[in-house]
Task: structure prediction
Amino acid sequence: MSITRHDDGSLTVPVEPGRHDVDADGEAITEIGSMVIRPGEGGYNEALAEWENEQHPDRADAVSTASGREHAMTVVHAIAQDSSPVGDAVDGLDDPAACADSLRHVLVGGTHAVEAFANEIADAEGGDLIPPHTATRIIGEVLVEIDARSV
Result:
């Protein structure tokens, strides 16, 4: 079972049964279940990074360049603070691929990397600190938009 990303940003992820999980008849549960994780919930950042890897299994590891990170901060800030539509914010990127790689690099770093990225955006761009779960949701939306355009 693979991870499914929904339009609202939530993810349906597979859940392996626990070692001691049994059904009503006392039989061991062996089927893989699923659960929905929303931005801000535990494990969401990791699941989003895994979903991204599933979408592009042949893609090399994400590398964050200085210009890509700058573009990434600008686009996330524009969407979070100015309520810019994702498509419009992506239209303004000089190098969408570098931006996407930088955003993937943030996701791979997990929750602490997203928190640090949100703080870096506030320092560089000004405005309110973007909550990490909001930053993660926006990162996912931007990656979907960039990937849709590169097909």
Q: What stands out?
A: Strands lie at 4-5, 11-15, 33-37.
